[in-house]
Amino acid sequence: xxxxxxxxxxxxxxxxxxxxxxxxxxxxxxxxxxxxxxxxxxxxxxxxxxxxxxxxxxxxxxxxxxxxxxxxxxxxxxxxxxxxxxxxxxxxxxxxxxxxxxxxxxxxxxxxxxxxxxxxxxxxxxxxxxxxxxxxxxxxxxxxxxxxxxxxxxxxxxxxxxxxxxxxxxxxxxxx
Length: 176
Prior knowledge:
The protein has three helices and nine strands, in the order ββαβαββββαββ. The strands form two sheets. Strands 1-2-3-4-6-5 form a six-stranded mixed sheet, with helices on one face. Strands 7-8-9 form a three-stranded antiparallel sheet, with no helix packed on it. The protein starts with 18 loop residues before the first strand and ends with a strand.
């Protein structure tokens, strides 16, 4: 469970850790995962949890902010600006077009996007989600395994001052 990362602001007893610090060649990198609260269910405040994590974080700090509402992601980005090296949102599965350095130097992207089948509903075969929307009945979602694969990511580099020096989005498709 030492390497299982999950939202740091989940209740006590949930398996895994909310942040992890790795060291390579004398450099430290802290990865933090937080979950938003808007439309996402019960969790502790991600803003306050970030503050407590930052008391012990070492090296470059990367935050994956898993949230539904873009407004919550943007607010968190500005809240963490100057303290985290990068904040990227996840959950909506659609890569946004707003990558930028915030005023105090934090790299920000509202949603990194997804890796999965391009012709799908959030990476799942499209028929069960469509039926669920039509009927309101729960359906088991299956991973779409056919067709082109979409790969979304954010590439960045940072310097010895722990500030991002360059960045670019990655959006590629492959397969047929």
